[in-house]
Task: structure prediction
Amino acid sequence: MPPVGSRDWLRWPRDSDRPRFAYGADYNPEQWPRAVWEEDVRLMRRAGVNIVTLGVFSWSRLQPGPRTWDFGWLDDVMDLLHENGVAVDLATATASPPAWLTTAHPEVLPVTRTGETVGPGARQHWRPTSPVFRRYALQVTTALAERYGGHPALAAWHVNNELGCHNVHDYSDDAAAAFRAWLRDRYATVEGLNHAWATDFWSQRYTGWDQVLPPRLAASHVNPTQQLDFARFSSDALRDHLRAEREILHRLTPGIPVTTNFMVMGHTSAMNYADWAHEVDFVANDHYVLPEPGGADELSFSANLTGGLARGRPWFLMEHSTGAVNWRAVNPAKAPGEMARDSLLHVAHGADAVCFFQWRQSAGGAEKYHSAMVPHAGADSRVFRDVVELGRVLREDLDEVAGTGRLPARAALLVDWDSRWAVLRDSLPSSLLDVHDEALGWYRAFLEAGVRVDVLPTDADWEGYGLVVAPLLHVLPGATARRLTGYAEGGGHLVATYFSGIVDENDHVHLGGYPGPLRDLLGLRIEEFAPLREGERVALDDGSSGTLWSDRITVTAPETEVWARYADGPLAGGAALTRRPLPGGGSAAYVSTRLDGEHRTALLGRLLAGAGIGSELPEDLRGRVELAVRAGADAEYHFLANRTGEPVKLHHLPGTPLSGTAAGGEGGEDARVLAPRGVSVWRVPPRDPAG
Ligand code: GAL
Result:
């Protein structure tokens, strides 16, 4: 696998490559008359905008017909931006095929699981595996690369847009053909496929590749390995599209980095970004915060995972919003301070670019009620004033932070895409399980404990961490099981949860009692699952409680400590939370239910103490403030984000505040105050590596 981010970062047009924050938005000038472009660049200068993403949805303007091109307007926009010191992340424009293309070639349109053809009229109405679409998409990519590869404004290429946002699962005949090819690559023979898919079940045995199909609508549960493989294939098919565009861009414009905007966000899981991160020159992400209590925790989790995908290097926040979105049932505006809080939380986790969708709020079209940097009200608005201030903070207060990486935490939290997919399917002991929810629950426990944790994909290097939590690691291939075992036996502290280690990469159960390959390590054995009904809660004898799941556990190793037993229900008296100390000083803990929030925090406290990991925050700030740390050669940068709705006083913190606090001492007391939703950044001397 190529290293993540081999070309690293933007090629800044004018001066040196000195690190600085990129600040800007998606810019859609084709929606506006030219007079507005002049105002746009004036306002961009005022806001400190130094980059825009251009051309995401401009295919129909750039190529009005199969053999006609119109680059004049884009030439003008590129020149105008460059004259005004704004660099361009130029999109390949392939996200939304023009009407002439889908009219001439309806065979590029995706097909749903139930056999309906997705019509044009919105966007992303293309099959990832359509050879016809690919040919046209690469044609426009080539034309753009040839025309703008040498333009001085060009800082990066932006492949397509949010690959898979609307078209990840396509069940068309093109998809069927490509799925077969993918399966042949994986299994070589039909017999190999029959084995992996366990096709002797329900008489599904295949005798030829032509019989194999995507998991289209069927009479009952479709073969689960077929479903899992289709999830893998669908992610790979889009990744292949990314590769195809990227290959052209690398070939025609060698010095220009190529990226695409991921959607590491909430329950979006269909694209395996752990894999895709190896395909881009730097990682870019889009994130839309949940407008609900705890939304900022999810933002932090996603930003943290994005930092993990970027392997700790700076990454690009390609889209978030200044205020409301338009695609939820109800779309509230952000409260004062929220936009800056969201932006700076991303920066805290390694973003070196803060960009929004979009620059100017559209007057027409499906996203006219989506916020922007310049709202409908114009520049004389709170939103635009806040935009200008955020630009100033990034440029002036935090300039020295740009280019620094994240300082590794001592604990890691693993996210596994196969497991995410596998527990979302049907025909499981429970349809209520969700890897994202479980992982986020653990992340919140870390926030409550005031202990930093790095969220990492399972294929990352996590052996150096003192504690590793692997929530709902349901799909456990032998190699990963061996890594986990080696880690704990080598002195690491592993925390596994319910329904983990159950199946191998083919979704075949590890036999002999659950959780197969972790059984000996954990010192326990489970014969039967005991999932809980929706709303059902189980009590434990340490006062904690859980939902969703419980296990009938037999403790098999004498040294396994039972930290809590079930206090009621059919499992009363049985072990619920266990921890097996290991001879090498490590341990392997098992959590058999989805613990309720504060109880998970309490358990995590015990597990952290056992691993010798403490909070880096003063006691009065733990849980109230999130700490994230970036580190440069000469200093650390501590980001403190207020998680409460109240002002928080910061006493006796080491270092110098760079931004985000106000003096707040009373009666001669030396304290700074962090406003509700505030994020404050402190420069702190680097720690002694020996200490
Ligand atoms: C993203 C997309 C943008 C815009 C935005 C609105 O999914 O990339 O083009 O639609 O959402 O929130």
